[in-house]
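Weekly puzzle thread! Below is a chain. First person to post its structure in token form gets bragging rights.
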Amino acid sequence: MHLHFWCISMNKHRNLLLSFSHLFSKMATLSVKPGQRFTLPNWHTNSHLISADAERQRSASHQVRQEARALYNETNNQTKWDEHDNHARLAERISSVNRWKETLDKCLADIDAEIDALAKVKEAAERALQAKNLPLDVSIECLTLRESRRAIDVVRDPVEEELHKEVKVIDKAKRELQQRVDEAFEQLCLLQEARQQLSCDHRRKMEALEIDRMCLSLNVNSPNISFKVNPTRVPDGSTALDEWEQNSQHNKEHAEAEMKASTELREATVLAIAQTNNELEAQRVATEFSLRKRIRDLERAYDELKWQEQNTLEEIAEMEEDIRRLEEGLRRKTKDLKVAHTRLETRTYRPNMELCRDQVQYGLTDEVHQLEGTIRALRQKLAESQDALDALYRQLHRIQTDTGYKANSLVLDNKCMDSRRKLVVPAEKFVPEVNTFNRTANRALSPLKNGQLELA
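Winning reply:
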């Protein structure tokens, strides 16, 4: 407004000066003397105008100065407040980014610990899976050994059923453990992927923190400040604050979800290892119980056969002795019959009336009939004895054959039992009790194995 009044006064002053100059130009045409003459009122008017103009000019200048000072103070305060606000915003932003960085630090530490824990559990599952190979080999070895049983001993007994069941249990355990190992491997890949996302986010936040801290440290005295081309532009790839927050939150929640899944998988894997070990141990106990019971049954059967063999041998010896006595008696009765025949035949040569049927004749005749009946009876009994002896020998052969089968089965089952010691004795401490010659190492042979070797 002051500037407007000043402009109006200046226009009036200019018009007045133009009027004076026009008047003076007319007077000059009238006067012949050089120079211009003014009237006193004009002089006063001119002085008054100059003073008024000076006053107005100073007033306008004062107004401009006041406005300049106000503008300076206002802009200075505004600049300070803007700089303070932006400084506070930068500090707040740095604090926010730093909080997320610390959150990501903790999340990275947790996921590293989870990866390490899951890797250890995976290695434990792999070791458990590898450890199942020995029981499987032992079970197959026992089944293979027992295939060498002979004749009637090739039975599908509880031992064979338990061994087949043990193979199935081991196969099931290996499949389950292999599945857990595969799941652990896939989960490790997912954890590594989540960690990679966290690591990238963490690295970007570190770079952002470094940039914002550098911006926070800038001031008017900093040496590296300058004008930039279009600094207020929005760079390509810029995101909204909500998107930034959601991205970090998503990375954190994704990592936590994968860690939770990994924890559940670790617990399931440890449980699977324990369950498979318990199932296999229970099956091992059941199999060895059946094997020991079968060995006891075989030993009882073997002892029974040995007792029957001994009794049969004794009976054969007695029968052979009785046959010898029968043959001896038959020979004697044959000689007695010859004597009786000779007497009867010789007495037929008595002359005339002396050839009578006396008591001697009747006695010798009865003796011949009696001897012939005795010889027939002895021969029949001798034949029966020979048949009985042959039957005893056949039975003895059957007993000895079955004894050999039982001895062979005992050797095989004992070898199975010895082989299964590897399941409970550490490999470095395992010393087989049975060598390649089916003999007990460093001990005297048992009567059972002595009998087996004799039969062989």
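Puzzle host: Confirmed. Bonus trivia for everyone else. The longest helix spans residues 241-347.
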